[in-house]
Amino acid sequence: MAKSILVTGGAGYIGSHTVLQLLLGGYSIVVVDNLDNSSDIALKRVKELAGDFGKNLVFHQVDLRDKPALEKIFARTKFDAVIHFAGLKAVGESVQKPLLYFNNNLTGTITLLEVMASHGCKQLVFSSSATVYGCPKEVPCTEEFPLSAASPYGRTKLFIEGICCDIYRSDSEWKIILLRYFNPVGAHPSGHIGEDPRGIPNNLMPYVQQIAVGRRPHLTVYGTDYSTKDGTGVRDYIHVVDLADGHIAALCKLSDANIGCEVYNLGTGKGTSVLEMVAAFEKASRKKIPLVMAARRPGDAEIVYAATEKAERELNWKAKYGIDEMCRDQWNWAGKNPYGYGSSDSTN
Ligand code: NAD
Ligand code: UD1
């Protein structure tokens, strides 16, 4: 029988791509999302892209903190595992509204874990972030590096990682995989699903994409005096479809005996500068991205990229795509959907 997986935050950017890969892999999926930062159109498109497998997708518009609603969903379906994406993720907003972030991300997760435990579902894959490495002293970042939180958002990731480890220590029936994502970019090669941030994008590539479709005039390059190849910040960009496949690898790993609570980086192991990424996007889109050089953004690290050996060895997973494919697919999505899932008269 098909494995049944609950995906929280499955209407969001990474969640929607992962749900599609899961459906195509033969899993039965229930998505819980409050649509706070997403659109149900994403899931309608996922259903279409999945063809016959689309019938194995069920969606509930529910907030994770609504325990009775979550209880009902768990009472109806016996889940083999949960993939937990749901959370707020804007670093700057988390500094302005820390309690909102603690309430949403921590209370949401604790409620989910309580309901899972009471229904005997003790297998979890959690979306953590390379943000827990702070400003690393060296690269590549291995999973053993010291951790820190530079923002309330980052602190929610650190806390949840700690909560998961504590739960496993208290009850060895739990199997938990913490995935530390590096910088997810790109879109599904069909161009029908992709990233659709609300308001002004905080991250590099959604911003670049909006310049290319004429929604913003120029890119502000934050910092040109870093000790990097061209002075701009270096990151590990990973194609969102590779990232989605990493979740299937993690689900397979959950069937190993005694995996406990394990952490894995999901990155490519390659560092790319802001200027290199812009050049790759210009090549893919044949659009000029006007640049304005500016001071460093507070809190930004100089160079961050992943050590990938642990995921390669233990999850049997390795990223397949490079920055040219990431930019090609992101441009395909942007060209087909210049205003994301909305229309040009929306407030974005
Ligand atoms: P996203 O905002 O597109 O998706 C998150 C989804 O969770 C949204 O659909 C939102 O509506 C939903 N959600 C939020 N709070 C909820 C709640 N209380 N109840 C139900 N649904 C809720 O973000 P994403 O980029 O897909 O990120 C998914 C996860 O990966 C997040 O936990 C994020 O912190 C983490 N992550 C993202 C990145 C990145 O750069 N995108 C990097 C590292 C880690
Ligand atoms: C940011 C977050 C991090 C989060 C990650 C993925 C901060 C300080 N860090 O990291 O916590 O996990 O996103 O969501 O916000 N850049 C520009 N101009 C822009 C935007 C970005 O030059 O308009 C540069 C940045 O300085 C950086 C690179 O592009 O060098 C990537 O930036 P971004 O996409 O925001 O990701 P991170 O900085 O890695």
Outline the fold blueprint.
Blueprint: E1 4-8, H1 13-24, E2 28-33, H2 40-49, E3 57-61, H3 67-76, E4 81-84, H4 91-96, H5 98-118, E5 123-129, H6 152-170, E6 175-181, E7 183-185, H7 204-212, E8 219-222, E9 234-235, E10 237-239, H8 240-253, E11 261-266, E12 272-273, H9 274-285, E13 291-294, H10 309-315, H11 323-336
Parallel strand pairs: 1-2, 1-4, 2-3, 4-5, 5-6, 6-11, 7-10, 8-13
Antiparallel strand pairs: 9-12
Helix pairs in contact: 1-2, 1-8, 3-5, 5-6, 7-9, 9-11
The structure holds nicotinamide-adenine-dinucleotide and uridine-diphosphate-N-acetylglucosamine (UD1).
Residues 9, 11-15, 32-38, 63-65, 85-89, 104, 108, 127, 129, 181, 184 line the site of nicotinamide-adenine-dinucleotide.
Beta-strand portion reads 15-25%
Instruction: Estimate the helix proportion, in percent.
Output: 25-40%
**Which distinct ligands sit in these coordinates?**
nicotinamide-adenine-dinucleotide, uridine-diphosphate-N-acetylglucosamine
Strand order of the largest sheet: 3-2-1-4-5-6-11
Mean pLDDT: 97
The arrangement of helices and strands along the chain is: EHEHEHEHHEHEEHEEEHEEHEHH
Say what oligomer this is.
single chain
Terminus-to-terminus distance = 43 Å
Please work out how many helical segments DSSP would assign: 11
SS elements, strand count:
13
How would you sum up the global shape?
globular
